Each structure stands twice: as C-alpha cells, then as structure tokens.
Amino acid sequence: MKGLSETEIGHYIVIVAIKGRLKMKIKASYYQQFDADLGLDVPGEGYGGWGEADIEISLEHTAVVVMHAWDCGTPEQYPGWFRCVEYIPRAEQICREVFPPLLDAVRRSPMKLYHVVRTGDHYKRWPGYARAVDLAKPPNSVEHIPGDESLDKLAQFRREHVFVGLHNEADVAAGFANIDFATEAMPVGDEGIAEDSEQLFALCREDGVNHLIYAGFAIDGCLLISPGGMVDMSRRGIMCSALRDAVTAIEN
C-alpha cells in the first residue's frame, strides 16, 4: 500500500477519526496479473503490471500488523547474524524513520494494531499476549515425516552452503537468545501479540478484523510464510496487504 507519506497518513487518519467516519480512501499499488499474450516469447509480458488506484478500507475491520520487528543488537555483538541476514540495517532504519509516525497514526485511529512474534520469552510479559492465548484454540499439531541418513546429509549441506553458514551459527543463536522488540515497535497497552496463526486469527475474530496490513521483516520471507504470515491468514479468509515503506526484502 502506497501513496501518502507517514506524516500525511497520520494526519489523514486523525481527521477521519475526529469526523467519526469509519472508512477511508487511500492510494494503493496493485499488480494486474492479466492478460498474458500467448503470441510473445514470454507471455507474462502482456500483463498489465503495476498500477495505482484509490481504494476504500474499513477502519473498524482493518488492523496493521507489525511482524518480526526486532532489536537484533549490533554487528559487534553478533557479527555472524549480520553476515547472513543482510537486511537488518535496512530494517533498523525503517524502525527508526517509518515506524514512529506510522504506529502513532494507527494508535490514534479506529484501526487495531497487532504484533506477530516468533521466538523467545520477551513478549510473554505483555497483556496483549495473554489476551491472544485466552482467545485462541491450541495450535494444530503438524505431523512430520521421519528423517534418514540422506536427509540428515542434505540438512548438513544446507547449514554449510545455504544458510546460515557454520561459522555464523553461534552468533545467530546468541542473538535470538537475547532478542526483544525493537524500541520503536514496542507494544502499547493491551495491543494483541500473537506467536502463531491461531492466535492472530483469534484476535481478528474477536475484534471483527478481516483485513490485515503488514509492516515488518521481511516481505518475501517471514511476512509470507511464517506463522501469522499472509499465506496462513489468507487461507482463513482474511485480506492481506502491506505498507511498502514499512517493509524490506531478503536478498537471495
């Protein structure tokens, strides 16, 4: 979702809330995935591609989701983590420059603000997490295929050659052991905090939310496929969008 600057977004949402309106028009980017031209060597080149349009969102049925916005320490503390997760500096810049006015605007609007977490205990002290746990059904158990020697060798190859690299593993583990919310992404009050898709869905169901607009890291990784990400929530009938200025991508 694109168009207004963060300051303008904040101003606009406040005006809408003051006037008592529960809907807002905003400029959005969209990708037109039709019509393929079968006469071309690459038929997809016939697609309409990226465009912009004014769309209407319902503020009472929409929530902004901040996902995996972490304090990852410094390169001096965890050099191996920064070697294999090169987007951390970009994420930190977005947290510093984009999140404060954006999240302030959301908090002053009728929209809900949720946080999606992944690992650790840092979020369990917040009342918003207790609310999600109380509302959610237990997570579905996922059956796993047992491994064998061949799979173990492939997993070892991946560790060594794909991600994270054996020489980086200790720093990554140490970083996750000390992880916390980024300062700019700290929850306020009882804002919902979900550690899995069941908890995020339970928050949406309780609050009447059917449209989630994501911010956080990273748009082509965790925001898509991690628990609480777009794939899982779309399967539950929830529309998923993203704030272009409040995300970054994994380079790979």
Largest beta-sheet details: 5 strands, parallel
Structural class: alpha/beta
- The domain count comes to 1
What's the rounded overall pLDDT mean? 92
Instruction: Give the count of helical stretches.
Output: 10
What's the CATH topology name?
A: Rossmann fold
Flag low-confidence runs.
Answer: 1-19
The tally of beta strands, per DSSP, is 9
Helix content: 25-40%
Strand order, largest beta sheet = 7-5-3-8-9
CATH level-1 class: Alpha Beta
**CATH architectural label:** 3-Layer(aba) Sandwich
CA-based shape: globular
Span from first to last CA?
24 Å
Rg, alpha carbons? 20 Å
The percent range for strand residues is: 15-25%
Order of helices and strands: HEEEEHHHEHHHEEHEHHE
Describe the structure.
- The protein is of the alpha/beta class.
- It has one domain: 3-Layer(aba) Sandwich (Rossmann fold), CATH 3.40.50.
- It has helices at 6-18, 79-84, 88-97, 99-107, 127-135, 149-161, 169-177, 197-207, 222-225, 230-235, and strands at 23-32, 49-58, 62-67, 70-71, 112-116, 180-181, 193-194, 211-217, 239-248.
- The strands form 3 sheets. A 5-stranded parallel beta sheet has the order 7-5-3-8-9, with helices on both faces. A two-stranded antiparallel ribbon has the order 1-2. Strands 4-6 form a two-stranded antiparallel sheet.
- α5 (127-135) packs across α8 (197-207).
- The chain is globular, with a radius of gyration of 20 Å.
- The two termini are 24 Å apart.
- The relative contact order is 0.19.
